[in-house]
Design goal:
This protein is of the alpha/beta class. It folds into three domains: 128 residues, Udp-n-acetylmuramoylalanyl-d-glutamate--2,6- Diaminopimelate Ligase, Chain: A, domain 1, CATH 3.40.1390; 117 residues, NIF3 (NGG1p interacting factor 3)-like (Udp-n-acetylmuramoylalanyl-d-glutamate--2,6- Diaminopimelate Ligase, Chain: A, domain 1, 3-Layer(aba) Sandwich), CATH 3.40.1390; 109 residues, 2-Layer Sandwich (Alpha-Beta Plaits). Helix content is 29%, strand content 31%. It has eleven helices and 15 strands. The strands form three sheets. Strands 8-9-7-10-12-13-14-11 form an eight-stranded mixed β-sheet. Strand 12, helix 9 and strand 13 form a beta-alpha-beta unit. The chain is globular and about 80 Å long. The structure holds zinc ion. The site of zinc ion has 4 residues, from loops. Keywords: Metal-binding. It comes from Enterococcus larvae. Belongs to the GTP cyclohydrolase I type 2/NIF3 family.
Length: 372
């Protein structure tokens, strides 16, 4: 099935909503339109002139970028400047660009979780809290013979996760009554006759972030023309979201060994290390992709043995050293991990929804730094 840019982004937003980005982060549609059919979507870390050339050659309709291409507002559109020419080329070739930046760092099953998976960091929590969202409760009324199917659909959409438990729900059986009138096309019953149906009321909870996907899963699984459901906010349960992650390695290693692991996992020629003692034992690791130096005090407060983040500034490195925090700066470009991971996720959606779309990742290396 061919789909529009809007259909794809609607699904993307249910996974990685814009409102989970840090305040002022210019996420979302940057260039072009989503009101068009899409056949090829390319994922990239950076939108650079070489990446735009690649997108034109590969007939890409939509670019999903980790780094917003218009991070600082363009003051003029002088296309003799390479950066601005790039915007013009994108518009001329009808290539839309959509950015998911800090929201991709904050969401669960996002970039920082992919880093932890790659490095074997378990039992993770966020490094720096950014958002607290309430839980919602959905109560849906469905004929008893459809109850099991509805519970499965709600669970698959992520509803009913409570602590270490999945698919939690509560149901009770009652009687639903309705009289279809002119214009109705009832699944059960006849026009202008009162109908009574044995219905289950199924209740599930979920964080507000999942509202769109849970409601659309419920509507898709409901047999009625006019599904009956209540949706309300619950006061006694909240969910925190944050940037970066802190977690544990399976078994302790020396800092020197850990550095070797980082170089290997990210295929690095070199990295920058801030540490007095390279034989220090590492068990608890904090990580924040990109430029996370401003969160180093959270790594200290959360008792991390080492903090991994990019773009560490010279004087901040002095402060980190003075406070006894070991820091590994593998560079900002390790965020390229978002490309294969997003393509994998999009291909899963392609399968689930039977989309006729090709998902690719950019093959351009946008790392401006080389080690010599
Ligand atoms: Zn970044």
């Amino acid at each position: 099935m061919s789909i529009s840019g809007n259909t794809f982004i609607e699904k993307f937003e249910s996974y990685c909503p814009q409102w989970l980005a840090e305040a002022g982060d210019p996420v979302g549609l940057h260039i072009g339109t989503l009101n068009k059919e899409i056949e090829t979507v390319m994922v990239t870390l950076d939108v650079r002139p070489e990446v735009v050339t690649e997108a034109i050659e590969k007939k890409v309709d939509l670019i999903i970028a980790k780094h917003p291409p218009i991070f600082r507002p363009a003051k003029r559109l002088d296309i003799d400047e390479p950066q601005t020419k790039m915007y013009a080329d994108l518009l001329k070739n009808d290539i839309a660009v959509f950015a998911a930046h800090t929201n991709l760092d904050i969401i669960e099953n996002g970039l920082n979780d992919w880093f932890c998976e790659l490095l074997g960091i378990h039992e993770t929590t966020y490094l720096t809290k950014t958002h607290t969202v309430p839980y919602k409760k959905l109560a849906v009324f469905v004929p008893v013979e459809h109850a099991a199917e509805m519970r499965t659909a709600l669970g698959q959409a992520g509803a009913g996760t409570q602590g270490d438990y999945r698919n939690t729900s509560y149901s009770m059986i009652g009687t639903g009554r309705f009289t279809p009138v002119d214009g109705a096309n009832p699944t059960i019953g006849e026009l202008n006759q009162e109908e009574r149906v044995q219905e289950a009321k199924i209740e599930v909870i979920f964080p507000e972030t999942l509202e769109r996907q849970v409601i659309s899963a419920m509507l898709a699984a409901h047999p009625y023309e006019e599904p009956a459901f209540d949706l309300y906010t619950i006061d006694n349960l909240k969910k925190d979201y944050g940037l970066g992650r802190v977690g544990e390695l399976d078994s302790p290693v020396s800092l020197a060994q850990f550095v070797v692991l980082i170089k290997e996992k990210f295929s690095l020629e070199g990295l920058r290390l801030v540490a007095d003692d390279e034989e220090k034992e590492i068990k608890r690791v904090a990580i924040c992709g990109g430029s996370g130096e401003k969160f180093y005090k959270d790594a200290l407060a959360k008792k991390a043995d080492v903090y991994i983040t990019g773009d560490v500034y010279y004087h901040t490195a002095h402060d980190m050293e003075a406070e006894g925090l070991a820091v590994i700066d593998p560079g900002h470009h390790i965020e390229e991990l978002c490309m294969p991971e997003l393509v994998k996720l999009f291909n899963q959606w392609k399968k689930d929804y039977n989309w006729n779309v090709t998902f690719i990742q950019s093959e351009i290396n946008t790392n401006p730094f080389k080690f010599r």
